[in-house]
Amino acid sequence: MGSQKDIDFVLRTVEERDIRFVRLWFTDVLGNLKSFSISPEELEEAFEEGIGFDGSSVDGFSSLEESDMLAFPVADTFQLLPWRPSESGVARVFCNIKTPSREPFEGDPRGVLDRIFQRADEQGFVYNVGPKIEYFYFDNDLNPVPLDTAGYFDLTPMDAARDLRRSTTLLLEKMSIPVQYSFHASGPSQNGIELRFAEAVSCADNIMTARLVIKQEAAEKGMFASFMPKPISGVPGSAMFLYQSLLDHEGENLFWASKDENPAHLSELGQHYVAGLLKYAPEFTLVTDPTVNSYKRFIRSGEVPNYATWGRKNRSALVRIPTHKPGKHIATRVELRSADPTANPYLALAVTLAAGLKGIEEELPLPEESTCDTFRLSERELAAKGIERLPRTLGEAVDWFEESDLMRETLGDHIFEYLVREKRAEWDEFCTTVTDWEREHYYGGV
Asked: Least crowded by CB within 10 Å, which of 68, 298, 303, 336?
């Protein structure tokens, strides 16, 4: 898959750099990275005919009766793995998954995003996204005890992860993934990394790679990196902020407007896009926040969105419009603040783009800007303003998602029905599991 020029470059590089193993990467529906290796001798055939594998054991893929799948490498995603030896080296390449008849497999998350990206492209829109990913470092994979007490952007000897962030950044840049910046985040032992914006499918590839590199480098240094949204009570949870923009085919930012047109410098098209995100957020929250633990982040602190609002300086808003430097129209973007790092990035970008495009298609008006922190208002006051509350639990998120025609249309029946089934089962299991909190509060009572 890819242009012949890209394929020729990959085959030449494999030979010249003594690559002995090529890892084919793809994700399951839940966003777990999957991989198997082929020898360099099989790579040319893989580009032309795909490599067969059993999809029946991959979450959300297929039943035993229809388990045969083909992985087609995408040549322009080829990268050497810099943590592997340079002699008899190892490379990776992302794959598109197809059926034996070479039709796109409807359970392939990368294919879902590519499909809606192409649909936007046909309408004259190029969807760009820059992610900022938060996560925690601990010293083991069982007990999340913070390693430092540093805070947001702190530069202090108490920051236990400075060297680890540096080495992680260097590894990512060796894989052609530019890092805007890395930093200590708000919570103890919490860190963050912001990647430079890219077209949507490349952005999702970069998120998958970054998650692996962060874990890989932490393990190398005897530490454990966790993307669990809320591993510790009483401290901030981890988000995955998604900075989104639509460009035209000449590279002009379609979200920008002069201040005379809109105080937030947001064009009419940009306003419709944001209105779409707000309207359909309750329906796509299951995808952007897919676990029971995801909803432990949503406390009314003023830093995490609980309602479908937008604002410029209001960080409790679901969508924030960051201020860009004067004259830098290309930097106009909207920041979705609800997603967390356990989300499958292909599906998360697909559903948010679908919501924004739906807002453009329906010419939805942008609601009034939320200038005060919504968590200070009562439920009645918010309802009077027509402000929709986001789901508070995984169970509520499944209910919203299951009723959504837009989500079914965007993801296709295969993934849509799998998510409803699996996430409903996950919620039911949690609801019947006895927790430490319950034992602490009720064991000796009555």
From this structure: 68
Between residues 271 and 313, which one has the greater pLDDT?
A: 271
Whether 63 shows a pLDDT value over 70: the answer reads no
For residue 96, report the phi and psi dihedrals to the nearest 5 degrees. -100, 140
Look at residue 151 in the predicted model and tell me its pLDDT.
61
The domain segmentation of the chain, as residue ranges, is 4-99, 114-436
Element (H, E) at 382: helix 379-384
Q: What is the pTM of this model?
A: 0.94
290 token code pair: 């897919």
Cα within 13 Å of Cα(388), Cβ side: 16
Count of beta carbons in the 10 Å neighbourhood of residue 121: 14
Name residue 203's amino acid. Answer: C
| 3 state SS of 288 | helix
* E strand spans, 125-284: 126-138, 179-184, 190-195, 198-199, 224-226, 240-247
CATH architecture of residue range(s) 4-99: Roll (3.10)
Distance from C-alpha of 208 to C-alpha of 77, rounded to nearest angstrom: 12
pLDDT of residue 287: 98
Q: Which fold has domain 114-436?
A: Creatine Kinase; Chain A, domain 2 (3.30.590)
Measure the CA dihedral 341/369/404/242, to 10°.
Answer: -20
Q: Are residues 311 and 371 in contact, defined by beta-carbon separation less than 8 angstroms?
A: yes
